[in-house]
Write a structure and sequence with these properties.
about 20% strand, two-stranded antiparallel ribbon, about 240 residues, alpha/beta, single chain, six-stranded mixed β-sheet
């Protein structure tokens, strides 16, 4: 991702199949790689190869502004190029969300993302006190909503200063792979947010989508549709 590479549409079968536009910004050193080892119970161990990353990797500012201007919302991953993109994205005024993954609440690298986003997702797995970390994000940053997912225990939702527990949703089939469950939660939550739903309802969507993702092997793309999401969300929680 350098200023010498112009952003433009790229063809990708999965994106084409679902009618999703894709802007590709190639990196001279290639992209990062990861390997996820999944056990029989669906739990995973993630191994990352960051040798292809370069300190100077950046998103072209013109591309950022163009894409942000055409977007209702931007979800930012916690990669180094995105860290440098945060000031530009904030200038555009587009609402931001981010996922801090298994942040321990202390690593300073994550703080720029936690404090710049309007909605913050993270896992409670490495947090000794999820509420304390969530309230600190709210107090020090811009977030009006913070969600800490807790696997089979559901999630914590901090919205407008009020902390609630979100019950887990029952998986519709045997659990085979936890890869993507957090991403599915965030995607469904943001769908609800953009549809004007209250935070509690958004979190219910997230719980249902996350439970569904755990039943799908990582080598398959089998997302639920909107109607199925709404139907399952209307049912009883665990």
């Amino acid at each position: 991702m350098d200023d010498g590479v112009h952003a433009g549409p790229a063809q990708h079968p999965l994106h084409d199949e679902h009618g999703i536009s894709l802007t590709a910004l190639p990196q001279p050193a290639g992209t990062k790689r990861a390997v996820n080892l999944v056990g029989p119970d669906g739990r995973r161990l993630s191994l990352y190869d960051t040798t292809r990353a370069r300190p100077g990797d950046r998103f072209p500012e013109a591309a950022l502004r163009t894409l942000a201007a055409a977007s209702r919302h931007v979800h930012v991953t916690i990669t180094q190029p995105c860290a440098h993109a945060l000031p530009v994205l904030r200038e555009t005024g587009v609402p931001l969300s981010t996922d801090l993954h298994d942040w321990d609440g202390e690593n300073p690298y994550h703080e720029a993302f936690a404090h710049a986003a309007d909605i913050v997702f993270l896992s409670a797995a490495a947090l000794a006190d999820p509420e304390r970390t969530m309230r600190r994000i709210e107090e020090r940053g811009r977030a009006s909503t913070v969600v800490a997912t807790a696997g089979t225990e559901g999630a914590f939702l901090l919205a407008d200063g009020v902390l609630t527990r979100v019950p887990a949703a029952d998986p519709p089939a045997p659990v085979v792979d936890s890869n993507g469950a957090g991403d599915a939660f965030a995607a469904a939550f943001l769908y609800g947010r953009l549809a004007g739903e209250p935070p509690g309802r958004c979190a219910r969507y997230g719980a249902v989508a996350g439970a569904h993702a755990r039943t799908v092997p990582a080598d398959r793309a089998d997302a639920m549709g909107r109607e199925e999401l709404l139907r399952r969300a209307a049912g009883p929680s665990r």
